[in-house]
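Sanity check

After download, print the first record. It should look like this:
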Amino acid sequence: MGTDKKRAPVIDEETAPVVRRIFELYASGMSPRGISEVLNLEGVPSPATYAYTQTGQKPKPNVMGLWTAVTIREMLNKIIYIGHMPQLRRTSLSYKNHKRFRRDESEWAVVYNTHEPIISQELWDRVQERRKSVAKGRKTKIGFTHPLSGFLICADCGNKMKLCTSVSRSTGKRFFHFDCGYHIRYGKAYCFSHYIAASIIEEIVLNDIREMAQRIVLDENAVREEFMQRNAELADNAVKSAKKELQAKRKRVEELSRLMQIAYEDRLKGKMPEDICLNFIQRYSDEQKRLETEITGLETKLAETTNTIQSADEFIRNIKKYFAAPELTREMCYELIDRIIVGRSSGLSGKEREIDIVYKVDIASVLRHKFKK
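Expected structure tokens:
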């Protein structure tokens, strides 16, 4: 903390590079456990160890002073690193019961831009996008995480595709392929085989990304305009529908508040038995809470629709970076891809195999993102 009146946080130049490196490693595809292993092997002091050397503050019992995956995950969620100060994170049950407990993040009060950030907003956004991604990515027994691990979905049963490996007896070379996880686990009784060589799906995805990047570079303004026109009508209809539904729910919430007040007043006047009054109020209260949750969801949906232009611009910036990408990387997949739906092979279906690449922003539909192989 600083020495000014507000005691605003001040960047520690010794530990700030470690924080930036952790965020960069995670954004590039490394897991929290992998990051902690790297830091421990390099002898980088953990937060507990550093605090002890600087202030003499002893670590908690049973703490070995090493980096852990839990520590990394906690750091990746701290908005203090981008210059914002979270407050009211803890509270007590009442003025009589002083036991403290942690509030839900939605109840925190955040004061923005209180101090100099350690990491950029762009890096923070990349990390949070990866944390929300459906693709967690698991290591193989040899410690390898494929760039597309966790992104592939079986088109028939909807479950994730599993990365498998085999070794050639003659050459000793290792080969990777993906197949439906439930087919591997339960066999044909549950789902068909969706076998596809890792090298083939990598090539399909990388070529699709390069092609989109090339088309965008050739005429970025035309692509953006076509995308916005295509989505304008859909977005307009979605906004109108959401606003209408939002208005109806807010009106019902106000009505429920009025009904609870009437029930309470009738109880005070003796017009309604206490048990019936409490029953009414409980029912009204439950419905009100449910509606408030739905209202929050609708407001989020409206905000996401409003930010379509910003998302499209960010997606275009990201994909242009990979105009001449030599290979597919996990960082590239996290930035651009939401999921990849893999159909059954042509040998089983009698048709051309369909592979649908679903990008985080649907600008790809303008550029014909569906490949058939």
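If your output differs, re-run the checksum step. Summary of this record's structure: Residues 256 and 285 are 8 Å apart (CA to CA).
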